[in-house]
Amino acid sequence: MNTTTLNHTTSSDFFSRAVDGVASFFEAIGEGRRIAQRYEALARLSDAALAKRGLTRQDIAQAAVNGR
User: Fold this and answer.
1) The domain containing residue 49 runs over which residues?
2) CA 20 to 30 Å from 49, out of 4, 13, 31, 41?
3) Which superkingdom is the protein from (predicted)?
4) What does the pLDDT average to over 29-52?
């Protein structure tokens, strides 16, 4: 005799996962915007001002992503 077990996810589990997915999506958009703003702020600085922060122009992208 074979026994089959079916797992039934409730609609509240599905709804919760969907809401979590949407929230994560908007959090990622927000983080992307913050990175872009940091990049733009650093890119506006002079080379001397960047050097005071220990950065060169080549470091701007990485610094923006890392939150420096």
Assistant:
1) 12-66
2) 31
3) Bacteria
4) 97
